[in-house]
């Protein structure tokens, strides 16, 4: 009896210990995930407190902490510099843990490449690069990795999209670490950029015309995505790699981080191409606005400023993460962390239309973008409807040269949007289109929009919403056709006698 009681007590103690450990793990995960979010204290003080907590628990929960931090690096790229600062502070206090984390991130990076998880691979590379700023990884070993990735651009008998992606991954990483590499390894950095330029000058761009939204470049050139990013990187290099968008909390801890020992990245060889691999397709950078379109408030960054790339990438990521919940997506877009520095409404509208008009097909169905824009208008009724109206006017004025597929998407979106706002629109401003040939894209657009609106309403409502001058563009009213009530009904057979006899014989 005594031994049985001891067994029961032992099991209860074990169960309590497991339960306590699970509670601690959940608390650690919550603290790590929430670091850097809005609170009464600064990001720096939050990081200091979290480092103290994690340092005390490293002995027991080392693997758990490693897993959470590596997942945050991939799944929360918008907080990249916060987590690299956290890893840097932990490395300064525990060199062994810093080495284990670097090994863990390298493993994550290699697995992402092998499994064709291209976004995860790019975010992992960015995280490793930013660890150079936090004195966790040496600049020399990072440059060796970047050079190895650029080696892929010289591979033969592989698809160009493979070579393009590896170059894009390196270019999109440089805004985070370019300044540090420029100060420490300027000649090596210039050599890397020269190799990239050689590749970009010789690559084929036959796909460019097929991916354009408009057939003309006025007023905004439609640049191929790698060419545009390369121009932005060159502008950043001219500015001595100084950008104004990426938060860098590790600067506040420079005196601590600079004393830490650094780790070297191991040799990382990209996996060879396999015929089953699918790479991201090329694209054309969509532009709708420039600084002259934003009358009040902060200026819109230039098309070749690196800030424009960083802002757009962040907004695209928010849409990707929240597109299934339109209300959350709209709230997250409007809660953009740097909204006081940019004309946020213009940036959001441009990015959403960039997704809608992406060629050859958008990432999501049309109604995803339409529903997000509706929620945005509801959340910011004072500003966003005006920006959206301005965007619609720009699209209508340029519709003559719009790609046919994008024309159809524009029709679908505009009719759906009107149906959610009582079909209200200032049609009088488009009266000039009535003087054009009926087959011209502008009157044709209005005609097709009204046809779509008819499916979302009824004919009399469409007639009432339109000025009388637009009568020739209105859809024809649909009428029931009951043939037995017509004048010719007496000549109609009620049944086919031959067919009836055939059925009876069967």
UniProtKB/TrEMBL annotation:
This is Nuclear cap-binding protein subunit 1. Residues 25-237 form the MIF4G domain. Belongs to the NCBP1 family. The keyword Nucleus applies. One of its GO terms (biological process) is 7-methylguanosine mRNA capping. Component of the cap-binding complex (CBC), which binds cotranscriptionally to the 5'-cap of pre-mRNAs and is involved in various processes such as pre-mRNA splicing and RNA-mediated gene silencing (RNAi). The CBC complex is involved in miRNA-mediated RNA interference via its interaction with Ars2 and is required for primary microRNAs (miRNAs) processing. Also involved in innate immunity via the short interfering RNAs (siRNAs) processing machinery by restricting the viral RNA production. SUPFAM superfamilies: ARM repeat. GO terms for molecular function: mRNA binding; RNA cap binding. Transmembrane segments: none annotated. It holds the Pfam family MIF4G. It is found in: Nucleus. Component of the nuclear cap-binding complex (CBC), a heterodimer composed of Cbp80 and Cbp20 that interacts with m7GpppG-capped RNA. Keywords: mRNA capping, mRNA processing, mRNA splicing, Nucleus, RNA-mediated gene silencing. One of its GO terms (cellular component) is nuclear cap binding complex. The keyword Cytoplasm does not apply.
